[in-house]
Amino acid sequence: MIEALPYIQKFTGKTIVVKYGGNAMVSDTLRRAVMSDIILLNLVGIRVVVVHGGGPEISAMLKMIGHESRFVDGLRYTDVTTMDIVQAVLCGKVNKDLVAQLNRLGGRAIGLCGMDGQLFQAECLDEKYGLVGQITGVNPAPVQNAMLNGYIPIVSTVAQGMDADTAYNINADTAAAKLAEALHAEKLILLTDVRGLLRDPKDEDSLIHVVHTREVKGFVDEGVISGGMIPKIQCCVDAIAGGVERVHILDGRIPHSILIELLSDRGIGTMMKKED
Q: How far is CA 72 from CA 36, 81, 97, 126, 191, in A?
């Protein structure tokens, strides 16, 4: 606690956006650890917003109804049936299950989806992806109002279509980054299934602890950043360009990784920032 004190003093009253997904969301033990971390941060005066996905749950529901899951360039192809399932699973079951668990652990959570108050506004990203949207606007007021009233907002990544009478499926990393910008958040935390950015993807001991945005292009050219890590890192760069002070990529498989990264002297993930 003594080690955590200066960090608590530094971040009290600040906003932190946590993108929650991967194994940390599937495992009951890890989910409980994440929820406990969020409650503790909230209790010491740090404003926490959770943005969640739900890919495995969506795939499971599609399989249950006999509808094929298909991916294009790493994004889920979203036809009308898939969009109905995405909306039902993300805005309904997953969101409310997270709210209920956080409340049971002693927190005060409230669930929001991107269509509430036009929180996320989007247009079609590209017809080849179906009803997948790119965010064109963010209205942070519903989230800000929830925090002002003492609630921890839990946000699902479905957006209101501005170019058509439809909802759009939104990448959770992108949604979290855009919301962090709109909230002028101090930090954006992306929980993943890897330790962070690795110099050698096969060697978890090759973790890069600090990355400056100016280094990103070189890492891409060298192949250090590749595949699915490229859009994730680009979200981090965009968030920092939009005013977020720091972005952390953390291994959600490690219990209490959020607390270890934020409130201790030993960071366990990759932190991205603009400059020293």
A: 36, 17, 29, 11, 23
C-alpha distances in angstroms, 246 versus 196, 210, 258, 270? Answer: 14, 10, 14, 10
Instruction: Retrieve residue 55's tokens.
Output: 């890919």
CA distance linking residue 69 with residue 77, whole number of Å: 8
One-character DSSP codes across 55-104? HHHHHHHHHHTT----EETTEEPB-HHHHHHHHIIIIIIIHHHHHHHHHH
Q: Which helix (H) or strand (E) holds 134?
A: strand 133-138
Radius of gyration of the chain (CA): 18
**Digit-coded pLDDT (tens) for 103-113:** 999 999 999 99
Q: What is the DSSP-derived secondary structure letter of residue 42?
A: H
Distance between CA atoms of 15 and 25, rounded to whole angstroms? Answer: 22
H-only helix segments in 88-228: 95-104, 141-148, 172-182, 216-222
Cα gap 98→115, rounded to integer Å: 18
- Please name every residue paired with 48 in a beta bridge, in sequence order, or none if there are none: 16
**Among 29, 99, 103, 42, CA closest to 259:** 42
Q: How far is Cα 152 from Cα 144, in angstroms, rounded to an integer? A: 10
pLDDT digits (tens, 9 = 90+) for 215-255: 999 999 988 888 778 888 999 999 999 999 999 999 888 88
CA distance 109 to 63: 30
Bridge partners of 19, per DSSP, are: 51, 190
